[in-house]
Each structure stands twice: as C-alpha cells, then as structure tokens.
Hints:
This is Phage protein. By secondary structure, the protein is mostly helical. It is built from six helices and four strands; from the N terminus they run H-H-H-E-E-E-E-H-H-H.
Amino acid sequence: MIRKGVVSVNKERVRLAILKELENGNNAFKHVDLGIEPNALNDAVEFLQDEGYIDGAEVYVTGNYDISNAMIIEKGEDYLEDNSLLMKAYKGLKGARDWIKI
C-alpha cells in the first residue's frame, strides 16, 4: 500500500542513481535529492554494500547510513555498464526525481 503523497520508486533506478553519483565522486547526496523516502535510500545503500557493488558505506541498525567514504567497485562499474542504455536517460541529481519514479 502506498501512502498518500508518497511516490512509488523503481528500486533498480534508485540503485543505478546511487552508483552513478558515487562514480561521479558525489558522496554527499541525500534521499531528498533523489525525491525518495529515507528508508528507500537506506535499503538501496544496504543492498549495494551487501551485494558488493560499493564499498565503504556504513548502514546502521537504526536505518541511518553514511556514504561519505563509499566508492563504487568493479561489480558496480559492471552493473552500470550492463545498464548503459537505461543510464543514458539519467541526467544527474537534478533530473533524478522524475527518472526514478515509476
């Protein structure tokens, strides 16, 4: 069930946006920059870290995260390359809000 005023997001696009921002050296973005709920960004960061796409991220039991030292690693670079057609439409944080929405 989607709460009123909350937009459903495409998890794959959130993950790709995070990877692209990290690839571009942006370690300071927040959930509001992507236009998503905090838990959606927390979940995506945790997934990317656990699956070996990024390294150096901290995800805490409280649901908070720290990506200030996170970096994309080889598996993440491969994931971006495998999704290069989809990434052509990604315009960075300014356009992320619309790009991530379903």
